[in-house]
Every structure is written in structure tokens, then in C-alpha cells.
Design goal:
The structure is a homotrimer of 330-residue chains. In chain A, the strands form 2 sheets. Chain A has a 5-stranded parallel β-sheet. Chain A has a 4-stranded parallel β-sheet with strand order 2-1-3-4, with helices on both faces. Chain A has helices spanning 24-40, 65-77, 95-107, 122-129, 147-161, 179-190, 220-224, 237-240, 248-255, 259-262, 285-288, 295-314, and strands at 55-60, 81-86, 112-117, 135-141, 168-172, 195-199, 215-217, 229-232, 270-272. Chain A folds into 2 domains: 4-146 and 300-314, Aspartate/ornithine carbamoyltransferase (Rossmann fold, 3-Layer(aba) Sandwich), CATH 3.40.50; 148-297, Rossmann fold (3-Layer(aba) Sandwich), CATH 3.40.50.1370. In chain A, helix 1 (24-40) crosses helix 12. Chain A is of the alpha/beta class. Chain A binds chain C through residues 41, 44-47, 65-66, 69-70, 72-73, 76-77, 275-277, 279, 285, 289, 296-300, 303, 328-329, and chain C through 52-55, 81, 83, 85, 87, 96, 100, 103-109, 111, 329-330.
Chain lengths: 330, 330, 330
């Protein structure tokens, strides 16, 4: 799957499917735009007019209230008309049924689809078949990519730490099933992070991860040693037991971030997690809400980043790089 | 069930329950208004202000994401506040429960209800009991009527073919269960189509259909011969087998529109289908997306037609016949 | 649970959790504001701008289409962005999971949460943990409180009857499980109702209700004698049988409001019910829609009251006591 389909001839975003292949200047431009939107929505009135009269359809083949909600809020705050469609993946597993769904909704003059699907490549499939002018945002496809999560993570790291070139980033937990890990690794590499580590038991590390530029650690203590940023991943408890992990308790003991362990971190290290957290599994509750944790800031940044991507694709002339004019519904 | 309840003393629409009994000038006025809205929503900003501050409630007793979506988009684009209520029909089967539901939602100052129900006559029931000023749109009631589908079909035919008086229209498939077929036949007759054909195996043709003005064909080849317009109906696969059809394969062989069969059509014949299509049953996938097919255009027209009906009922002074002023939220 | 958490240092509402402890002037101010909104939304355009750019999240841990709908409409008519989240209570029964949910949604810059939960005290829990500036509206928590229902009941009584000090109010039915009864009793007492009666079989009267200021009647005839206002409660049929009631028929015979019984009422007595009614259980259908019934007006008043509370909390400077300026989206 190539990333070129995401860009138009002038190198501007027309879809967002993966962070793989996006240039450093483009990623930084998205983060700058997100910062401008974060700033513009600080006050009481969070409504901007960039997508007024446009239609954004959240097309979720996999249930995710939380992610859907952030996309819905992002679109609402840009004044788009938003439609939520939850589709049972079972009834649309065949490519031609996906195609029929896309074409039908396109005919309703949708401008953008936010797609979540449990099949890797689903967002690419939509982008390949979308009519000109119709944008596809990948909100997570299988184990492949979750690019807006990757961007909000980069936003959070940049805001807290500034220069990526000095950072050692440890990604901890279920790497093998994680689209978040893949998107983070692509972005961190592009942005020039000094060292990217994946920290997990052998069963949860995918083959070939070193080729993506990550160092593998099977010991949490070693993996955290000297880290500036710790990104924990959510453990999908249901699918873990048996095949991948002997027990949740053992995982917590060996890879959970506890109060004891954060004392070993660098004093200014930050802790992140895409949420929702499993208290007592990958993280202790006290740590999640402790002073080093940026988990809730990640949620806020997620809306700003999604607004940025939506506006840069659908209203590129309005979404100036550094400034979100408070253009109102007129 | 009389149609008069749909019109006020000046002959203007106050509900839309059925196309039966609507005059030719009124139908044409709706189509003209729809054309104006289709034109006004071509650009990036599809938002018009006709229903600003009005409340439209989609009250669906039968699940239909697709139809509900088109009504929701139509209302959104006219700036209405839209509320979606999905009600289990089982819990509201009794007339008095329907009545309680209507009265309660009316008391919330709803201006319009879009109703879908599996009982024929449900929309009439609501219209009979609605308070003055409250409008009912029938989005499909049992086997009875689906008037906005009928209107969008007429819109599509008129745009492609112009004058109805020269047209032979073949409606193919499960006529007996189809509210779409009934609404199409009423409209085609009113608009003066030269010949209306229903083409189906004997088990799928309702008694008395000739009295509605249709000619019955049990052979697809004969039914398509000389047709200008072919309207395929969706086969509800689940309820067909056994009682009505020996097998889906046999239906496809005898009544499915295949590449082979469209070669026998008149060169300028058009193909329509209310969707969603059953590939390999009533139509082949290649035919559905072929050059004669207007299936996706029907979807687009559906939004324009629904906007037209909503605006003509709730904002008749703004919804000028031929011109949709781009009145904005001010 | 104290009520103080609801008020800021100037005695203004910042949450609405219970009517217990609210002052008479504050309750009257809410009713006045509701009257202003009821007036301002009489015309065709029901849209006001008070909450433009604000985000209201309906967070329902207990299904209630009807209540959720009235909050959604109230927020829409004030131009808020509204998000509906239906959460299975089972998956969020633990306090720390509720806390995680609150904090995550807060991070999305929600301004107000409308909470319904089957656990008494859930709304207080949220208010205790909400960030400064985030408002909590209780839409019903267990058997504890349903303050907007209490307010709309007071609005309805005041509009029909004026001065509370002359009124005898009989609340009839399942008192023991009713948060509506509790909220009504608190408000009636604060507003100075002459006499508050609860009328129910002994199994449905909670211990200690007299300390709230209510007189207990186990005979409907005695309870209705001289009443100016009759508030019927909805019987949750499923949980009644066996433990609390021998049969629904017996309940209807002894405590149902029938045509025969309303003839014994004072000529100007009014009948109320929070809905949805159980015809033939607590009320006969004819009585529900009879001339003394204000049941549908209660629904309308519910929207005005909810608008009032939302605006007074989130836009106190705009929500003048007696006048709702038609401030539009600009």
C-alpha cells in the first residue's frame, strides 16, 4: 500500500491513510495547524466555520464510541454536518459490498468519510475507489495504521519536549496488534527521534519491527532506562489470554507501569497512553493521573489534530499554517 | 385511505403520505423545486436556511439506515434541527401507543415527522391525529407507499428522458411486496407515461394491479422489449424463499438483469434500482455500475426531492417553485 | 449528599443535582427563565444562540429515549453542539471507571454533562470530580432525584394554579422507587404548598416520608379529597409484581385514576403524569387526554425548563431572569 494516494500533485493532503511516507514538513504543518485550532477553541465559543455546509460521515465498521466522538466533535466545531453510521462489519466484509456502501454515500454528496474497520487496508480501499474530491480519513484499520492517533501523540510530545532529535521514546506493551505503535514509529522516525524502543514480551513483538527503526527490549527496566517519553499501549485483554500471555497479573508485574517504576524514570520523562486505560494492567490508576502523565492532554490534542487534518483537506485555503481565523458561520 | 388529508384548502401539501391522488402540476412543482435545490447544493457549501429553527424528527419503527440518512441529510442541509428516533415496532404495535408517541413528540414542538413503519397505513394514522401545523412525511409504510422514492424516480426519469408521454416503463421483480412499485405506478400514471409494465413471476404480482394501469408480463424478454426505462426492485431475499420463489438462482436466471440482457434493450434505455442492490440476484454488479445505470444518480436526487418536499410543506413562501434562494442562517 | 456543591460563591447554579436545598427565589428564577424561553420559542424559528460553540454531552447509563430527547432538543435550540453517548451501566459500575469516563470526555472540552444513571448519587459523584467550569445536570439518578422533572412539574402547577400556598397536591402511586416524587416533594415544600400528600399502598411508601413534609394516605378516595393537583407516577410494571403488588388489576382498581374517580375531584383540579403513561394501570386513556390533564403540557414545559437551566449555568449573563433575548448565531 503506497502513501502517494494521500497527496495531490502539489504534495497536499487529500486523504489521510497512514503516516508512512508523509514528509517531515507536512507533519509539522499539521501540528502547527492543530496548535492554531487548539488556541482558537480555548474560549467559550469553540465554533469555527471552516467546514460550513460540508458533510462528514463517520463510517464505523468497528465500534468505538471514544474515537468516533472525537471525530464528531472535531467536525462539529468546524461547522460541518456530521452523520454517524455504525455498520456491522460482518454484513460488509466483501469488497464489493464496501464499494456499494461507499458509492451510495458518495452519491449523497458526502465530502469526507472517517473510516474505522478491523481489516488492514480498508481505508486504502476506500481511497482508491473514492470519487475525485471525496476525502478519506483513516480512523484505524486493523493492525495497520491509526494516523490521527500518531499525530496527536507527536503533538503531545512536541508540546512537552520540543526537539525530537534529543528524545528516546519507549513504546510498551502489545506491539504486535497495535496500529497505534506502527503510526507512532513512522512519525517518530520521520521527525527524527534519537531512539525508538519497543518494550514487550517476545510474543507481543512483531517480526521485522527492527526494519521500521525500532530497538526491541524484553525487559521493562532496561527499556525505560533513560527514556524521555513512555507510550503505553492498551492491552486488549480478551484476545491476550492463553495465546499471548500467561496471565494479566504476570503482564502487570513485568510490563505494567507502577508507582515504584516511575521513580526509576528520568525526572522529566512523560507518560502517554491512547486510552482507555486498563487500570492495574498496563498502568496503575495513580500513575495515569499523576503529574508526569499526559494522557488527558492527548485526548484534547486529538480533537485539535483531527480538526487540522479535516480543514487542511477540505478547506486548504482557509486553514492557514499558523493561524486559524475565527471564520464564523455567516 | 384518501389522499385529501395531504392537502390544505388551497391545494398545497401539508403532509406527504402517498402519490395517489396528487395532481400532475403538484408533482411537477415538487420536481422543479428539487431541481432548484440540486442546483443550489452543487457547490462546496450545501447549507440552506429554509428550515432554520424547525425541528424534524425521524421516527423509524423499521430499521433503514440508508433511507433515514437521506432524510437526515436533507433536513440538515435546510438547517433544521434533526432528531433520530429508532423505535422497536413491537413495543408500539397498538394504535394507542402510536398515538401516545405522536402526542408526546408533538408536545416537544416538532414541526415534521418522517415516519417509517412496517404497517400499511401508519403514516395516515399519524396524519389523521397530528396537531394542526405538524407535518407527516411517509418514508415507507408496509406495502403501501414510499412517495419520496416515487418522486425521486420521476425526477430521475424526467432528467434523463424528458417527456413522459413517450415512455414505456418496465418495473421488474417483487411487485407484490413493493411500496416502491405502487408509488412509481401512481406517479407514472399521473404524469402520463405511455405504458407501464410490471414484470415478475405470477407469485410476485399482486391481484388487481391492472386496475392501477399496469400491464403484466411474466417473461422478462417480453417485458423489456421496447422499454425506455427499466426499474428493478430489491428482492427481500429472506422472505422470498419457499413461499414465493423456488430459488434465488432461478429468479436471477429468469428475471435478473445481466450483461447479456441489456444488449437487447433499446440503446438509450436507462436502468434504475431503489437500492441497496443484491448483486447476482436482481442485477449483475457490472450492470449496476454500467453506463446505462442511473442508480447512484437516484440517490443524489433523493436528497434534492426530500429537501423539496420538506421546504414546500414547512416553508412554502421560501420554497419558490423554480428557485431556491441561498437563504443563510442569519 | 449536600446541595451546596450545586451553587457557586454568589449562590448561582453551577450544577443541577437535586432540588433539595435550592432556595425559593432561585427556583422561581428558573421558572421565570423557562417562561421566557417558552415564549421565545413559540414562533417558527425556535433557535436561540445562548450556547453557541458550547458542547453538551448526554451521558446516559440508563436508556431513556424520551428524557434524552428533551435534553437534546433543549440544547439544540440554544445552538449547542450536542453529543449523545449511551453507555452500558454494567461496564461502568465502578467509581474509577466512571471517573475515567468523566475525565476523558472533559478533556474533549465538554461544557456540560447531562447524566442519567441507575445508581443514586451518580450525578453527585460526577459533580464532585468535575473540573472547574464543567457543569453536571442530573437527568435522574436511581431513586434519588430528577430535578428537571421536579422543575417542570412546578412550572406546570404554577402556570395552571398560581399561588402554591393555597394548594393541596396529591402524589399517587409508586412513591418508594420514585425520584420524581422526591424532587416534587422538595420543590413543593420550598415553594410553600399548603399540603403535600403521598397516596399509595403501604408497600410503595418509603419509611420516613413524613419527615420530608408529606402526609401519607393509603386510600385513593381520601387522598384525592380536596386535592388541587394530582400527580400520578409511572408504575414500573416489571419490578412491581410479586414483591410489591399482588396484581396490576388490583392496583388499577385501588389506585388508578379512572373517569369515575375524576368526577369526585374538585372541579378545577389538574392531573399530571411524568410519562410515559401505562394506560389502564395508573390512568385510563380517556383521563390522560381529558380536559383536566396537563400531561402533554408537561412535556412542552420540560424543554423550556431544561433550556433555562442550561442557559443559567453556561450563559448566566445572557439568560436574564425575565427575558430571553433572541440572540442568534451570528
Amino acid at each position: 500500500m503506497t502513501a502517494n494516494i494521500q497527496l495531490d500533485d502539489n504534495g497536499r493532503l487529500k486523504h489521510l491513510l497512514t503516516l508512512e511516507g508523509l514528509s517531515k514538513p507536512l507533519i509539522l504543518r499539521i501540528l502547527d495547524q492543530a496548535a492554531a485550532f487548539a488556541d482558537a477553541t480555548q474560549g467559550r465559543d469553540k465554533k469555527l466555520g471552516h467546514l460550513r455546509g460540508r458533510t462528514v460521515i463517520n463510517l464505523f465498521f468497528e465500534a468505538s464510541t471514544r474515537t468516533r466522538t472525537t471525530f464528531e466533535l472535531a467536525a462539529q466545531r468546524l461547522s460541518a454536518d456530521v452523520l454517524n453510521l455504525q455498520v456491522a462489519a460482518s454484513s460488509t466484509s466483501k469488497g464489493e459490498t464496501l464499494f456499494d456502501t461507499l458509492k451510495t454515500l458518495e452519491a449523497m454528496q458526502a465530502d469526507m468519510f472517517v473510516i474505522r474497520h478491523d481489516a488492514s487496508g480498508a481505508a486504502h480501499f476506500f481511497a482508491q475507489h473514492a470519487a475525485p474530491g471525496v476525502a478519506i480519513l483513516n480512523a484505524g484499520d486493523g493492525r495497520h495504521a491509526h494516523p490521527t492517533q500518531g499525530l496527536l501523540d507527536m503533538y503531545t510530545i512536541r508540546q512537552a519536549k520540543g526537539d525530537f532529535s534529543k528524545l528516546t521514546v519507549a513504546i510498551v506493551g502489545d506491539i504486535v496488534h497495535s496500529r497505534v505503535a506502527r503510526s507512532d514509529i513512522h512519525a517518530l522516525r520521520t521527525l527524527g527521534a534519537r531512539e525508538i524502543r519497543v518494550v514487550a514480551p517476545p510474543t507481543l513483538v512483531p517480526a521485522g519491527i527492527e526494519q521500521m527503526g525500532a530497538k526491541v527490549f524484553h525487559s521493562l527496566d532496561a527499556g525505560l532506562d533513560g527514556a524521555d517519553v513512555v507510550i503505553l499501549l492498551r492491552l486488549q485483554k480478551e484476545r491476550m489470554l492463553g495465546a499471548f500471555l500467561p496471565s494479566l497479573g504476570e503482564f502487570h508485574r513485568d510490563f505494567g507501569l507502577t508507582r515504584a517504576r516511575i521513580r526509576q524514570l528520568k525526572p522529566d520523562a512523560i507518560i502517554m497512553h491512547p486510552g482507555p486505560i486498563n487500570r492495574g494492567v498496563e498502568i496503575e490508576g495513580d500513575v495515569a493521573y499523576g503529574e508526569r502523565s499526559l494522557i488527558l492532554q492527548q485526548v484534547s490534542h486529538g480533537i485539535a489534530v483531527r480538526m487540522a487534518v479535516m480543514a487542511m483537506i477540505l478547506a486548504p485555503e482557509d486553514a492557514g499554517r499558523a493561524k486559524a481565523t475565527k471564520r464564523r458561520a455567516a
